[in-house]
Amino acid sequence: GNAATEAGEDSKSLPEVIFAFLIISLLKEIFQIFWQRLGYFKDYTNLIDLSMYLSTLIFILPYLTNQELYGDVRVQWTFGTLALLLCYSNWCLSLRRITSLSLYITMYIEVLQTFVRVILIFAVLLLGYALVFYVLLKEEDTFSSVWVSMAKIFVMLLGEVDYTDILSDNVGNSAKVPGTSNLYVPLPVLSYILFILFVLSVSIVLMNLLVGLAVGDIDSIQKTATLRNLIDQALLVDSIRKRYPTWMLRLTYKEYLEFKLNQNTTVKRFVFSGTGLSNEDFLDIIGKNESSQNEDEGDLDEYDRQRIERQEEQIKRLQATVDAQSKVLTAIANKLGINE
User: Fold this and answer.
1) What does the alpha-carbon distance between residue 295 and residue 276 come to, in Å, rounded to a whole number?
2) Integer Cα distance of 280 and 261 in angstroms
3) For the chain, what is the radius of gyration of the CA atoms?
4) What CA–CA distances, in Å, run from 333 to 322, 324, 325, 327, 338?
5) CB 194 within 8 A of CB 136
6) Helix-then-strand count for the chain, H and E
7) CB atoms < 10 A from the CB of 168, how many?
8) What is the pLDDT of residues 79-134, one digit of tens each?
9) 176: helix, coil or strand?
10) How deeply is 167 buried, as exposed, middle or buried, from its count of CB atoms within 10 A (0-12, 13-18, 19+)?
11) Max Cα separation, the chain?
């Protein structure tokens, strides 16, 4: 009994704890809006954060007031579900800050952006097919309205065409809507033609186009993986610099990060995650650091000397080419009897 009572009290205090964290987060977002002004809304991560906090606030308020504020509980749970999705989406995006995981998150975002661009381009075509099937097959549940038809078109885009249920059985059996004389497929020939055309132009061509673009994006990202990681880190630093004032950044800024040989193993493991450096490799780098500094100057001198030699060889080759061309032009001029 006592355990159940304590559990009930904990569950009652949970909305208050969430509300406290929510207020702190909203104040942070308001401060960023005040500091960045319109620049705040140009970053999609800020929009995700703000939408998540507002959705959570709408969901949590009835629990704090013990009243039904919206007249319909479905409104509350709609925003609660949206807040849950945004929370985990934001969590997934935050993994980009981890070097070993940032590449995969970048791949996902690039492929998603490509998919959205292509779908927006071909949205008119998909809408056209949705309207066509709504007109021809509106007696069926899967095409009973324009919105339901549009959702079915997107499902059919992935290959789930339901040929037997939609056309074959209804046409072969001349199936009618119960209680009426209306056929499920009143124009079977036209329906078959448009159905086959949809499979060819959308399920095969468009879907393979999306797959090909996704593979191309992933391949290009893998070829520039190191550069992508550096770009993500630079963008992260730049976004932090823009979000907060200078005096606040100075409080947390450190000119260097100190590592001790046998300490801070967790910190070292996090910093060097994704680089392939083990603890022994890190110690070797520290040990070789001093000796490599003395060798750097000699390496630079040797590099400069080799570069000068290569430049001199290139100049000699260019001079030889110019001399040869001059001789050829002189011979041609003499042959044609052209005098200077």
Assistant:
1) 25
2) 10
3) 33
4) 16, 14, 12, 10, 5
5) yes
6) 14, 0
7) 13
8) 999 999 999 988 888 887 776 777 788 888 888 888 889 889 999 999 999 999 89
9) strand
10) buried
11) 119
